[in-house]
């Protein structure tokens, strides 16, 4: 029997390497979003789960983007992004914007209907939530940038079902 909280002989305890860390993080259920941008840096989008609110004063949120993604440099150049929170019938859009169907950016955007918000970033019309942001700060850590945005525009739909991602698969949640 293992003792609480942390027994080195517990078989459930894994050495801290990046594979173990990824496995641990895969067990956290997370909302799925498509982050978009538009402007001089181009019109781009990518699926993200690393996004959360920061403060309500000023209204602000953060997204963590791998610097190798095409959208990363475009967001920094455009100085804006829109977080589009997906519903449970958006699995295909999530896969497409995660690069799983090998489509170029126009091909990705052709999978949905989009309307520009205050900053000009594309909002997915059928998303649960569109949060349009101006870039406030960028902090690099390892392979990623933590990008904080202040909210310029917001759109919400009535209650429905949200798309979650946990243990490398999709789930649906009434929200
Ligand atoms: C459910 C899910 C969540 C993801 N979350 C993130 C994320 O938070 N940050 C990130 O940089 N990439 C994330 N990705 C990977 C990007 O979607 C993917 O690398 C990107 O679209 C491919 O880069 P490209 O647009 O340059 O082809 C996620 C992928 C999936 C399927």
Widest sheet, order of strands: 3-2-6-9-10-5-4
Which class in CATH terms?
Mainly Beta
The secondary-structure class comes to: alpha+beta
Dominant shape = globular
Per CATH, the architecture is Roll
* Tally of separate domains: 1
Beta-strand level of the residues, as a percent range?
Answer: 35-45%
Which whole number gives the mean pLDDT?
94
SSE blueprint:
Layout: H1 18-26, E1 30-31, E2 33-37, E3 44-48, E4 51-56, E5 59-66, H2 70-78, E6 80-85, H3 91-97, H4 105-109, E7 114-116, E8 122-124, E9 129-141, E10 144-156, E11 161-166, E12 169-174
Antiparallel strand pairs: 1-11, 2-3, 2-6, 4-5, 5-10, 6-9, 7-8, 9-10, 11-12
Flavin mononucleotide binds at residues 32, 46-50, 64-66, 69-71, 94, 97-99, 165.
How would you explain this protein's 3D organization?
This is Flavin reductase. There is one protein chain. The model has no long low-confidence stretch (mean pLDDT 94). 17% of the residues lie in helices and 43% in strands. It is built from four helices and twelve strands, in the order αβββββαβααββββββ. The chain has 175 residues and is α+β, with helices and mostly antiparallel strands. The protein has one domain (18-174): Pnp Oxidase, Chain A, CATH 2.30.110.10. A hairpin with a 2-residue loop joins strand 11 (161-166) and strand 12 (169-174). The site of flavin mononucleotide has 17 residues, from strand 3, strand 5, helix 2 and helix 3. Residues 32, 46-50, 64-66, 69-71, 94, 97-99, 165 line the site of flavin mononucleotide.
């Amino acid at each position: 029997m293992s003792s609480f909280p942390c027994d080195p002989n517990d078989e459930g305890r894994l050495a801290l390497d990046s594979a173990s860390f990824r496995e641990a993080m895969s067990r956290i259920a997370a909302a799925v979003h498509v982050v978009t941008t538009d402007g001089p840096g181009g019109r781009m989008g990518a699926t993200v789960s690393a996004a959360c609110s920061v403060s309500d004063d000023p209204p602000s949120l953060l997204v963590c983007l791998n610097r190798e993604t095409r959208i990363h440099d475009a967001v920094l150049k455009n100085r804006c992004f829109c977080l589009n929170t997906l519903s449970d019938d958006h699995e295909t859009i999530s896969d497409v914007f995660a690069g799983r169907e090998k489509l170029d950016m126009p091909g990705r955007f052709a999978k949905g209907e989009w309307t520009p918000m205050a900053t000009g970033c594309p909002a997915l019309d059928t998303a649960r939530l569109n949060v349009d942001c101006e870039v406030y700060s960028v902090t690099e850590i390892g392979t990623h940038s933590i990008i904080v945005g202040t909210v310029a525009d917001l759109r919400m739909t009535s209650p429905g079902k949200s798309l979650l991602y946990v243990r490398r698969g999709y789930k649906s949640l009434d929200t």
